[in-house]
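Re: beginner question about structure tokens

> Can someone show what the tokenized structure looks like for a real chain? I only ever see the sequence side.

Sure, here's an example I had lying around. Input first:
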Amino acid sequence: MTYVVTESCIKCKYTDCVDVCPVDCFREGPNFLVIDPDECIDCTLCVAECPVEAIYAEDDVPADQRAFIELNAELAREWKPIIESKPGPPDADEYKDVKPKAHLLER
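And the corresponding structure tokens:
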């Protein structure tokens, strides 16, 4: 099983999760993070660190977010690793409670 970043991360991209990941499995896109399922060791450390509760165990991803399982795998192959946290986007707080926002994902 792996962990999955879901819609809540879009346009927030807080990177608190990156600092606690022991295997550097996060990948960074323009306004979203994903987890590389081939690198994730299921340690669960990132879940508690996400301020927008965007990270779920694959088996626990809500039904309306299941497309993010494949999306994480796909984008992890394209995006570069992020190994250090950085400040979130300046407007991140404005988007943390916005739903739906999948249409705002930048590839």
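Each token stands for a local structural state, so reading them left to right follows the chain. The first strand starts at residue 3 and ends at 5.
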